[in-house]
Amino acid sequence: MNMDQSKTSISTVWNGDRSGQGTIESGSLNAPIAIPQAFGGTGAGTEPKELLLASASACFTMTLVGLLEARKLPAARLAMNSEVSISPEGIMKMIHRPELVLPDGTPDESMQLAERTFEAADRQCSVGNLLKKAGVEIGIEGRVSAGAGAL
Amino acid sequence: MNMDQSKTSISTVWNGDRSGQGTIESGSLNAPIAIPQAFGGTGAGTEPKELLLASASACFTMTLVGLLEARKLPAARLAMNSEVSISPEGIMKMIHRPELVLPDGTPDESMQLAERTFEAADRQCSVGNLLKKAGVEIGIEGRVSAGAGAL
């Protein structure tokens, strides 16, 4: 997904010192934030690295959904686990693991097209591309299967 | 705040096509996500750009909180509005507007020290520095006052 040019804003409030807690809020986001325990905080809330991963994950997912629609590949189910870690050398690495279930009876060529869609989504996702420019490594470990799609 | 080296993971689920909706979830984050209306979605959820801003905002806030504690400047209140926009040339610009209230009777030199803390927090925030490396512009428009700190 490319970036929307409209203005987006959020409000952040913090109470207390390092062991305190805050909230981050916008029209559609409302989450407690807390400093991770590794930095002397309570850890009882989301934090910058997790939100950065959430941004990259949402971007990849939405780009993928747009491409699947354009390629007439209706997902019966789409779920993804994403993780981020930082190497001792300070390199941030993210991995997205999308699991795409296409309807029972989807022809083989469509299954293969769906697999290639993961790479296309990675190439087109604007947040991912921004992070890569800053040296973040992003890996995609996708899986396509056919099934009923029940959760 | 520097980055914690532990692994962080989140789960993302999506239902439907471009006009569908999803959720993004971790231990402490649980938010609906939706494709913005500008891209043919419902707009009824948070999206990548907002989450990216939330990450930068949380990082700046937590870094600031740590510095205020180290400098013995207890905040009576800390609130911040952050916004992000993208220029027609594609340059992403974020502005953080922290409003810091120090206790009544805080000496002038402490007030000035607190003002300088905004710039120090900007220089030390890891997510902000990562985004700057990718060409994002970040501006700080902070305000320090003294008062009772009631919301």
Topology diagram in text:
2 copies of one chain form a homodimer.
Chain A: E1 8-15, E2 21-25, E3 30-33, H1 48-70, E4 77-86, E5 92-103, H2 108-124, H3 126-133, E6 137-140, E7 143-147
Parallel strand pairs in A: 5-6, 5-7
Antiparallel strand pairs in A: 1-2, 2-3, 4-5
Helix pairs in contact in A: 1-2, 1-3
InterPro entries (chains A, B): KH_dom-like_a/b, OsmC/Ohr_fam, OsmC/Ohrsf, OsmC_Ohr_Peroxiredoxin
Region (Disordered) (chains A, B): 1-27
Protein name (chains A, B): Osmotically inducible protein OsmC
What would your notes on this structure say?
The structure is a homodimer of 151-residue chains. Chain A is 32% helix and 32% strand. In chain A, the strands form 2 sheets. In chain A, strands 4, 5, 6 and 7 form a 4-stranded mixed β-sheet that branches. Chain A is built from 3 helices and 7 strands. By secondary structure, chain A is of the alpha/beta class. Chain A folds into 2 domains: 1-46, N-terminal domain of TfIIb (Single Sheet), CATH 2.20.25; 48-147, 2-Layer Sandwich (GMP Synthetase, Chain A, domain 3), CATH 3.30.300. Chain A is elongated. In chain A, β1 and β2 (21-25) form a beta hairpin. The model of chain A has no long low-confidence stretch (mean pLDDT 94). At the A-B interface, β1, β3, α1, β4 and α3 of A face β1, β3, α1, β4 and α3 of B.
